[in-house]
Amino acid sequence: MPIKLGMEAKIYYKVGGQGGGGAWTELTNVRDVTLSLETGEADVTTRANAGWRATVATLKDASVEFEMVWDTADAGFTAIKNAYLTNAPIGFQVRDGVGGQGLQADFMITQFSRSEPLEEAISVSVTSKVTYSTTPPSWI
After folding, report:
1. Three-state DSSP class for 86?
2. What is the residue extent of each domain of the chain?
């Protein structure tokens, strides 16, 4: 299995979520994308476990965090900003490359924080979390 570099990975968005109109569009104005996948857990320890704690997985949780250059002329930036300001769902595909694998789901933008360093470009930190949808998340 060949290694993958972060710069080869792709993130795509779809306004209105997975079921929204139009095609998936690559979000190119991003850097340092993090896809976090976690699972809750329940303790199912019984006396039959001979002194060992037993755990089972429960609900899965996913978030996507990334930074963007503050570019109001960029369509992807505008889509993310508008999704945040209107509390609208936005579909994301977070893939390990063109045609690669990753998570596809509808997300809610929960953080949109602007940073204005003195000697750098203005940027925005974005956090998104899986949201309610008629189309459940899937691994593609």
Report:
1. helix
2. 6-34+60-135
Euclidean distance between the first and final Cα of the chain, in Å? Answer: 18
In degrees and rounded to multiples of 5, residue 108 shows phi and psi of: -115, 130
- Counting residues of the chain whose pLDDT is more than 70, the rounded percentage is 99
Point out which residues pair with 3 in neighbouring strands. none
State mean pLDDT over 95-100: 94
What's CA 74's distance to the chain center, in Å? 19
Q: What does the pLDDT read at residue 136?
A: 95
Whether the Cβ atoms of residue 15 and residue 79 lie closer than 8 Å to each other: yes
**Residue 1 reports pLDDT greater than 60:** no
pTM of the model: 0.91
Supply 134's token pair.
Answer: 């008629």
List, in sequence order, every residue forming a beta bridge with 72; answer none if it has no partner.
none
Cβ neighbours of 56 (radius 10 Å): 10
Q: Which CATH architecture has domain 6-34+60-135?
A: Irregular (4.10)
